[in-house]
Specification:
The radius of gyration is 17 Å and the shape is globular. The chain has 184 residues and is an alpha/beta fold. It has a single domain, classed as Metallo-beta-lactamase, Chain A. It is built from 7 helices and 8 strands; from the N terminus they run αββββαββααβαβαα. The strands form 2 sheets. Strands 1-2-3-4-5-8 form a 6-stranded mixed sheet, with no helix packed on it. It starts with 14 loop residues before the first helix and ends with a helix. A hairpin with a 2-residue loop joins strand 1 and strand 2. The mean pLDDT is 80.
Length: 184
């Protein structure tokens, strides 16, 4: 069953525009598969689905950094909603050495972060269906099977002590994100 469509205009909280406004003169924002060459390698924008609740938020991006023929893919809160998305990526970038993957797979409702940017309130059912979540174990394994990295690190679980004041996340061993990351 397809998820319901959001019939709401939202504003992209553009990190690029924010950084430019506070004085950074050369801010670059990468689109999917757009590359910036740097000494010894490149940084590649990677398709990102997940924590942005299906809104077109460019600030939510994933990056592959390749330096001296070693590559690191950072997909903190990516929710591998469609496993076939990442299969062609390996053909484009080759072998990936290290993947950093967040597995906070419950996620808050869409309005938790983006509510102030929406032009009208969301119905509760729609708000709950657009969670700001990352991959669970199954989706994370699909991503790893597509890219076949040499090393994988699960991170960005929101367990940092200082974050509890913002998120009120208090995981136990029975919490779904912890269970999913431990299932790995």
């Amino acid at each position: 069953m397809d998820a319901p469509k959001i019939d709401i205009v939202s504003a992209d909280p553009s990190l690029k525009l924010m950084l430019q406004q506070i004085g950074f003169p050369d801010v670059r924002e990468l689109d999917d598969l757009e590359m910036i060459e740097v000494d010894g390698g490149y940084i590649l924008g990677v398709p990102f689905l997940g924590e942005h609740g299906d809104l077109n938020i460019r600030t939510k991006s994933a990056y592959l950094v390749n330096l001296e023929n070693r590559s690191v893919l950072c997909v903190a809160d990516s929710n591998n909603l469609e496993p076939r998305l990442y299969e062609p990526l390996r053909e484009v970038v080759g072998d990936v050495d290290v993947v950093f993957l967040g597995m906070e797979c419950d996620g808050a409702p869409l309005s938790w972060v983006y509510g102030p940017l929406l032009t009208k309130p969301l119905a509760r059912k729609l708000d709950q269906s657009r969670r700001l979540d990352g991959s669970n174990c199954e989706k994370g394994l699909h991503l790893m099977n597509s890219l076949r990295p040499k090393q994988v690190y699960v991170y960005a679980m929101g367990q940092e002590p200082w974050l509890t004041y913002l998120t009120n996340i208090l995981y136990t061993d029975a919490s779904r994100p912890i269970f999913e990351s431990n299932t790995w």
